[in-house]
Design brief:
Blueprint (H helix, E strand, L loop, with lengths): L7 E6 L2 E7 L15 E7 L3 H9 L3 E9 L2 H13 L2 E8 L6 E5 L9 E3 L12 H6 L2 E5 L5 H14 L3 E5 L6 H4 L11 E2 L3 H8 L4 H10 L4 E6 L2 E7 L2 E5 L12 H16 L3 H16 L11 H22 L1
Parallel strand pairs: 1-4, 1-8, 2-6, 4-5, 8-9, 9-10
Antiparallel strand pairs: 2-3, 6-7, 11-12, 12-13
Amino acid sequence: MSSSTTRSVVSFGAYILDCLVAPVSRIPDGQGGELVDEIALSPAGPAGGTALVLAKLGVKVRSAGCVGTDASGTLLMSLLEEAGADVANMRRIDGATTSASVLPIRPDGSRPALHVIGANTALKDAVPWDAIREADHLHLGGPEFLGPEEATRVLSFARAHGATTSVDSLAASSPEGFALFADALPLVDYLLPNDEQALGWTGADSVAEATRRLYARGAAAVIVTAGADPTTIVDASGERTAPVFDVDVVDTSGCGDSFSAGFLAAVLQHGASPDEAAVIGAATAAHVASGLGTSHGRYTFASVTDFAASAARKKEAVAHAGS
């Protein structure tokens, strides 16, 4: 990777306030209660979580999305600002509820979700055109909230003003979910879904085939995460995989958004190749997965990079010792 270059990013789309409870082995019956170890609040969502982690990694990021005028909206913006994100382009919607999720985290790190869409339904009227015009990169998190025509318009505007683009989505893992933004893929430099989405969107039998099919729809690069399995990358250089890291998982929520942030920070700020950036994305996600919520952890881009390099050396040493 090359030396650091300051690049400005607009992270526009779905912003969510997560309320995480851990560990939760069962939901008490009736009016029963249960003691837990921790309850945490964190910015989340494919735009919100990514903005948060980008800021923690030292990237100049502008948050752009919609929240209500309620206490949840105030808290969400405060947490983003505390991490270093610029919240001047966040729109507060009178009478709307801030989008939020309650996540009971199981002991293995998985979780069901209780969710309210709230103010994210107003995104079509909150496109930050001036901020996008000035940005080096647009990360569109949740294009399905805009619909195919508006998502295409926003990404086209970014491209016309010299910005690169990335997309992550909350759309259902089905062809119908994919149809909400599929027409915009030729305007996307980095498409960042997970394996469940890629398989559901394309109907493919394998992650590799799903990634190839998404690439064929026009995105310049498709990077598909798969939890503890390697990340699959397809772009003009071909198809390959990138490793992930073994960690003691506390909570898997926010891992996709933190992967996107690590990937984008590496590409935009440090000139990494997609292969190098996927490793940094996985290392960032590993840091987040070791605690509760997307906001978990104290780290910098340098410390994440050092972690990835150290893990690679240990793996190589083990392989060498066994040969």
